[in-house]
């Protein structure tokens, strides 16, 4: 199946309520993994899919499974297992969106750190889909609060990440508690032998799909990303338009509806912009492209399909207003700039929970994407002043100003006002509708320190970061712990990004890890009881590198109420349900 022969969403025979949402959202065509996965999943077949992050896997399994459920049945019919809480939330939100025309449909994300009482209430009320991390799913199975006897489909998402984080045994244990007749879909970016063994044991005559990831170098394009925080994306885009040297720009969004809405908002802010999408007639699309080429239009807000093959040399910038779920789409998007040997600029807006997609894009382009800060109030003021000076210089050189010079002489003589005062007043009148100094509504962005790109390692640190505190955890080399196990546990349980975790040193019976100094006490208490490789972390402040290197436990103060000095007593290491104890995402 080639890109040219991919079916449309209308041809995939999704349930009418699901197809209606796809049409409302404005998705134009399925990605390769969606086009090849949806038909067999609709038919009830098991599926083994190899595809990278950023290929549209969530819709590939969510759309067909949602098409097969019975909304009137208030029991879990779909179970999705994910390695992290961030992915669980992302999948749950997508499923809720796709199912918005299914009456009384509910999806419940379950993960460590979330209030258990809230999860119990939702399960008692009735949900049709559960998306969760293995540890918390196991918790509910032990309690008897999650029944899986009415499941029609189970999805194991990012199975290779499950393996890296030490969850693969728990995934199989959960699958053993599901009905024999259920449908199973397993997705993985790579297929290590352990994942293939799980697939052979758990999948029945699966359809196998492999989407080969394309990589491309884009040497002529400078790539940057802004992590969405504090400001609305429209305000961020406005700042960039104000401060950057822009000749022509394409702003990419995911849906046809968004092209029209964003173009209208940019027009309202004084920018020359127009939409470009598949609902427009061919004649109107061609007219819009011609306006962009001629310079009578500066900004086109487009979808992927509408911008295919677009070749306009004056495009200096591509803005990914919505991050693409398909890495190939990103490569096509940024390829609209940097044409004919010219240097282009690509800027990507990334929400915190989309950082994993950013890493996938870096792998696809084989280039790091550097973090950027938004232009400040001063940057915008300087840019406006510079343009105003250019206008003055151009008019001074090209226009006949004799009449106006006589007018100024007359005004100065009549009112006895200095030339400087007259010039300042005239400048004010010219710019008052678009002030050189941004108005007070322009809030400053809170800028985080520059972070190294995730595609290349940060240089080793000789000293501990000033904003980090070193902690000791009671799991080490003897327990076969790896740095990934520690990172996976802490990011899941403390709701942190992997970039928040500093240096990790693993010794025989314990490890040292650098964490942010401002972690709340309740998070620290919670981390003490988290399990990694069959051991409780028993997190405590490290009180001395010398003691640590000798393997002697330093004096430490538990984060109990009142900060008493009594050591914590580890609980039972192997609860009855799990062979190796509860895992780290509980």
What keywords describe this structure?
586 residues, alpha/beta, Rossmann fold, seven-stranded parallel beta sheet, disordered C terminus, 4 domains
Concise summary:
With 586 residues, the chain is α/β, with parallel strands linked by helices. It is built from 20 helices and 20 strands.
Describe it for me?
Residues 440-462 and 545-586 have low confidence and may be disordered. This protein has helices at 16-25, 32-42, 57-68, 85-98, 116-125, 134-143, 159-164, 168-175, 193-202, 233-243, 256-268, 282-294, 327-334, 355-365, 377-398, 402-415, 419-431, 483-494, 521-528, 545-549; strands spanning 47-50, 78-81, 107-110, 129-132, 153-156, 183-188, 207-210, 221-227, 248-252, 273-276, 299-302, 315-320, 344-350, 370-371, 468-473, 504-506, 511-516, 531-532, 535-536, 540-541. It is an alpha/beta fold. The strands form four sheets. The chain has a seven-stranded parallel sheet with strand order 3-4-2-5-6-1-7, sandwiched between helices. A seven-stranded parallel sheet has the order 10-11-9-12-13-8-14, sandwiched between helices. The longest helix has 22 residues, at 377-398. Strand 10 (273-276), helix 12 (282-294) and strand 11 (299-302) form a beta-alpha-beta unit. It folds into four domains: 3-210, Rossmann fold; 221-375, P-loop containing nucleotide triphosphate hydrolases (Rossmann fold, 3-Layer(aba) Sandwich), CATH 3.40.50.300; 378-431, no CATH class; 457-586, RRM (RNA recognition motif) domain (Alpha-Beta Plaits, 2-Layer Sandwich), CATH 3.30.70.330. Keywords: ATP-binding, Cytoplasm, Helicase, Hydrolase, Nucleotide-binding, RNA-binding, Stress response. DEAD-box RNA helicase involved in various cellular processes at low temperature, including ribosome biogenesis, mRNA degradation and translation initiation. Residues 233-380 form the Helicase C-terminal domain.
């Amino acid at each position: 199946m080639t890109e040219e022969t991919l079916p449309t969403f209308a041809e995939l025979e999704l349930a009418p309520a699901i197809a209606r949402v796809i049409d409302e959202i404005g998705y134009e065509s399925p990605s390769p993994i969606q086009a090849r996965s949806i038909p067999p999943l609709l038919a009830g077949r098991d599926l083994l899919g190899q595809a990278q992050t950023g290929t549209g896997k969530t819709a590939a399994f969510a759309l067909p499974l949602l098409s097969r459920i019975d909304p009137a049945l208030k029991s879990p019919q779909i179970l999705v297992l994910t390695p992290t809480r961030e992915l669980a939330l992302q999948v749950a939100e997508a499923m809720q969106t796709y199912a918005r025309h299914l009456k009384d449909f509910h999806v419940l994300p379950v993960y460590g750190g979330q209030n258990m009482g809230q999860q119990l209430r939702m399960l008692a009320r009735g949900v049709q889909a559960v998306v969760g991390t293995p540890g918390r799913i196991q918790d509910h199975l032990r309690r008897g609060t999650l029944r899986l006897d009415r499941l029609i489909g189970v999805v194991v998402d990012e199975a290779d990440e499950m393996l890296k984080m030490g969850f693969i045994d728990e995934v199989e244990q959960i699958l053993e508690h599901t009905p024999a007749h259920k449908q199973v879909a397993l997705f993985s970016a790579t297929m290590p032998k352990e994942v293939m063994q799980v697939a052979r044991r758990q999948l029945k005559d699966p359809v196998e799909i492999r989407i080969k990831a394309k990589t491309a170098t884009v040497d002529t394009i400078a790539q940057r990303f802004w992590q969405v925080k504090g400001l609305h994306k429209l305000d961020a885009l406005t700042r960039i338009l104000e401060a950057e040297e822009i000749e022509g720009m394409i702003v990419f969004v995911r849906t046809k509806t968004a092209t029209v809405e964003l173009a209208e908002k940019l027009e309202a802010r004084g920018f020359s912009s127009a939409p470009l999408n598949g609902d427009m007639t061919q004649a109107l699309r061609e007219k819009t492209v011609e306006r962009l080429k001629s310079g009578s239009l500066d900004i086109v807000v487009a979808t992927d399909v509408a911008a295919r093959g677009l070749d306009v040399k004056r495009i200096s910038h591509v803005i990914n207003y919505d991050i693409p779920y398909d890495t190939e789409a990103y490569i096509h998007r940024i390829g609209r700039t940097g044409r004919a040997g010219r240097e282009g600029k690509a800027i990507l807006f990334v929400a915190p929970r989309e950082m994993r997609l950013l890493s996938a894009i870096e792998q696809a382009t084989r280039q790091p994407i550097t973090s950027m800060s938004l232009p400040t109030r001063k940057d915008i003021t300087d840019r406006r002043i510079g343009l105003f000076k250019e206008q003055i210089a151009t008019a001074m050189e090209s226009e006949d100003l004799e009449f106006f010079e006589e007018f100024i002489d007359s005004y100065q003589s009549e009112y006895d006002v200095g030339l400087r005062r007259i010039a300042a007043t005239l400048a004010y009148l010219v710019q008052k509708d678009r002030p050189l100094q941004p108005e007070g509504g322009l809030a400053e962005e809170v800028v985080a320190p520059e972070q190294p790109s995730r595609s290349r390692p940060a240089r080793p640190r000789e000293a501990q970061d000033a904003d980090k505190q070193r902690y000791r955890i009671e799991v080490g080399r003897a327990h076969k712990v790896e740095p990934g196990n520690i990172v996976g546990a802490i990011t899941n349980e403390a709701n942190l990004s992997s970039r928040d975790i500093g240096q990790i040193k693993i010794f025989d019976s314990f490890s040292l890890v650098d964490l942010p100094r401002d972690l709340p006490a309740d998070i620290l208490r919670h981390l003490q009881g988290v399990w990694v490789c069959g051991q409780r972390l028993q997190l405590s402040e490290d009180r001395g590198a010398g003691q640590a290197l000798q393997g002697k436990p330093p004096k430490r103060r538990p984060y109990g109420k009142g900060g008493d000095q009594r050591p914590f007593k580890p609980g039972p290491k192997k609860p009855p349900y799990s062979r190796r104890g509860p895992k780290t995402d509980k």
